[in-house]
Structure formats: C-alpha cells, structure tokens
Predict the structure.
Amino acid sequence: MERTLSIIKPDGVAKGLIGEVLKRFEANGLKVAALKMIHLTKKQAQGFYAVHQEKPFFDSLTDFMSSGPCVVLILEGEGAIDKNRKLMGATDFRKADPGTIRADYASSIEQNIVHGSDAPETARFEIAYFFNALEIVN
Ligand code: ATP
Ligand code: MG
C-alpha cells in the first residue's frame, strides 16, 4: 500500500472539475485517505515547489498556485504514485495520452489541473507539508 499527494490546482477548481477528478481517482482504485480545500499564500506555494526555485517558470507557477483555492488530498493504493501520474498524463498536456486528466482539461503547460508526487520521498515530504497524522484516515 502506497500513499501519494494530489492537488486539484486553482484552474481545476475554477473549472468545476473537483468531482470529475475525484471520480477518476476512485474509479481507478485510488482511495482518498485525507482531503481539504486550501488557498495557498505565495510563500506556501514557494515552499511546496521549492525543488523548482531555480526554474524560469518558478515565479509564474507560484503566482498561479496561490491565485485561488486548491483541493489537496492523499491517495492510497497499490502503486498509488505511478497510478496517479498515469491518470494525470504528461506535464505538457499536448504530449499527454488521450483520456488523461491533463489531455482532457489542461489549458497550458502551467495550468494543468492536477499535481501528483513523483517518487516515494517527494510523496512523504508533500504529504507532511499539508497534513498531520490526525488528519489522515487509516
Ligand atoms: P506537478 O509537480 O505539478 O505534479 P509535473 O511533475 O508533471 O507536475 P514538474 O516538472 O514537477 O511537472 O513541474 C511542476 C509544475 O510546474 C507543472 O505541473 C506545471 O504546472 C509547471 N511547469 C512545468 N514546466 C513548465 C514550463 N516549462 N512552463 C511553465 N510551467 C511549467
Ligand atoms: Mg512535479
């Protein structure tokens, strides 16, 4: 059993896609172990995406991530990290497989509806960034 952190980004929430995205996770064997809505400050977005602080898109990305509310959730299941990344599709929606969340709904490389942890270590950091033990269901 593995856990991963997912975010329905501000564009996904603004487009009314919370239910659609959650439906895809649940239909594909990923269980929700924690969930909340949060409007990140610029500083909180910078902390979350600190690995990208040297990238040219960092300032724009953190502006976007703090532009409106997000839904943050923990998904649990066998191979949850990879399964979630497959359902999301490639970062660039033009390269994402048909039927993935990003292929269906993203509007740019930046505004791509969802985030998902990319490895066990990042999943641990990202889960702890948003949730304490009392907020996670077993
Ligand atoms: P995420 O970490 O959000 O799940 P990812 O792992 O597919 O996405 P990363 O390389 O980690 O992609 O980039 C983090 C986020 O930064 C992307 O999801 C996207 O919103 C934004 N981003 C990535 N590359 C670019 C780019 N070239 N131009 C603008 N924004 C970008
Ligand atoms: Mg990433």
User: Anything to note?
Assistant: The pocket of adenosine-5'-triphosphate (ligand 1) is lined by residues 52, 57, 61, 91, 109-110, 112, 115-116, 118 (CB under 6 Å). The chain has seven helices and four strands. The helical segments are 10-14, 18-27, 42-48, 58-65, 80-88, 101-105, 120-130. The first helix runs from residue 10 to 14.
